[in-house]
Amino acid sequence: SLLSIYRNLFVYYSSVKDLKSALLYIDKAKKLAIDNADTTELSLIDLYLASFYWSTFRDHEKALMHLNAAKKVLTPEANYAKFVDLLLEEATIYSEVDSLDKAEELFLEVKQLALSKSNTPKYVDALVNLANIYLEKGNLSKVEENLAEIKLYPLDNLDFPLLTKFYTVKAKYLRATGNIREAITQLDPLITQIINRSKNNTDSQAGYWSVEDEYLDAFSLIADLLLETGEAGKALVILTSLKQSTMLLYIITHL
Q: Mapped to the 3 state alphabet, what secondary structure does the chain carry?
């Protein structure tokens, strides 16, 4: 359909950072949805725009505005998958702006919805993010409880950014409990995977790969850990190994 074409063009132009064209096509999609009185499609457009404003500009106010608009239409009964994605996006934004109580409430809602549908990937997603929230709050016993539950599930079905977040949270917990060497051991193979992915990623080779926040957190953490253990040389080697990818400049400017 024409709506799908417009949405796909929005996604494409967003990915290559042509923001003017991206907004042009999502506006065309929105006008068409309004003409068709398609409230569900409008809510999906709001989801796209929420993600766009958050990932591109870190504009939490506009992102939350669009998520709230979508929430008025979508329901967990009729739109389970989209509704859960909405909650995860909303919870992530609140956690990033330090509204930890609100983020915890939303991740708990995702956890319950995922449990009701036996949706293991989303259930584990909620557990990982809740562990991170409890870590931020300094509640190490709850972190340990969530990490122990995550161990009960296979991690093969997790997407790589979430898997990265899991190992980063686990490493932060080990650091907080005095196990710095074990934290480094947990992160080492992960860092290697991220480097390899950056080298093999076709978007990276084209010069516009979007680096996930989870990858930056992992690099920032291992750099800190290596400096704490007096291994500045190894930290430099890890960063230097990224020299041929677009990640290096991005990481240096965000440390």
A: CHHHHHHHHHHHHHHCCCHHHHHHHHHHHHHHHHHCCCHHHHHHHHHHHHHHHHHHHCCHHHHHHHHHHHHCCCCCCCCHHHHHHHHHHHHHHHHHCCCHHHHHHHHHHHHHHHHHCCCHHHHHHHHHHHHHHHHHHCCHHHHHHHHHHHCCCCCCCCCHHHHHHHHHHHHHHHHHCCCHHHHHHHHHHHHHHHHHHHHHCHHHHHCCCCCCHHHHHHHHHHHHHHHHCCCHHHHHHHHHCCCCCCHHHHHHHHC
Q: Is the dihedral of CA 182, 185, 191, 197 positive or negative?
A: negative
Query: What confidence tens digit (pLDDT) does each residue in 218-242 have?
Result: 999 999 999 999 999 999 888 777 5
Token digits of residue 150: 């995550």
With 50 as the cut, is the pLDDT of residue 251 above it? no
Phi-psi region of 58 (alpha: psi -120 to 50; beta: other; left: phi over 0): left
The mean pLDDT value of the chain amounts to 91
Put simply, whether the predicted model's pTM sits higher than 0.70 gets the answer: yes
Which amino acid makes up residue 151? Answer: K
Q: Report the alpha-carbon distance of residue 18 to residue 233 in Å, rounded.
A: 39
Q: How confident is the model at residue 192 (pLDDT cuts 50, 70, 90)?
A: very high
Residue with tokens 């989209």: 82
Which among 122, 119, 161, 127 has a CA at the least distance from the CA of 143? 127
Q: Residue 8: which residues within 8 A CB-CB, separation 6 or more?
A: none
